[in-house]
Design goal:
It is a single chain. 50% of the residues lie in helices and 13% in strands. The protein is an alpha/beta fold. A 7-stranded parallel β-sheet has the order 3-2-1-4-5-6-7, with helices on both faces. It is an enzyme of class 1 (oxidoreductase).
Amino acid sequence: MASPQLNNKIVWITGASSGLGKALAQECAALGAKLVLSARRYDELEKVRLALPNAQDHLVVPMDITDERQVRHAYDQVLAAKGRIDWLINNAGLSQRALIQDTTMQTERAIMEVDYFSQVFLTKTVLPTFIQQKSGQIAFVSSVAGLLGTQYRASYSAAKGAIHMWANSLRAEVAQEGIGVSVIFPGFVKTNVSFNALNGEGKPQGHQDEAIENGLEPQQFAKITVEALLAGEEYIVVGGHKEKLGVLVSRLSPKLLYKMIRKMKVK
């Protein structure tokens, strides 16, 4: 049965062609939402849309999230077709698997562009609509890596930490406008994120990590996340016992956490 809180709500999800975005789309559609699906690949987005319940209610709007002109055009398309936006889920992202000393500045900037600046630009583009509506929910998919910082993920951790802090400031600024802001911190979830993760030279790693392979199922992640968003939670950690323990220890004793991280196999 559709959730009364999501029934007929317009939910815009970026990075919706696979992985976490696809799973979030499936969960929201099952609860009666009308989706806007964005990513670069139109064909993959269409496959996602056609597999959703009430496929005719959902809209595919392809865009490269790093291209501001395309983002503005996508926003205009969404408003023309749907008239409003109730949820924006900033999910598009790019991971990393490289030591700092092996990572070029071009790769550092590429990761920051996708994981931070692009999310900021899309949110700032959509924000006037939320303010005019006096309602809306903005969610950012950060990462447990954005809370902890580990080897081989310095640029990724930095970008995911940056969007978390930016979201905190946004939440404080728009709370009186009836707008909610949530940050989601996934741990290891079984997606193609590690295949696409950039090495130091900025090329996709091209293989799966063991930790990702043993992570949560995407559907499980999506169910927990959407339930938390519907409950109005603002700080949402979704992961296994190891990731949750790491987040807890980071709050209680950062010194102990970094002793633990130095001994961990994280690649």
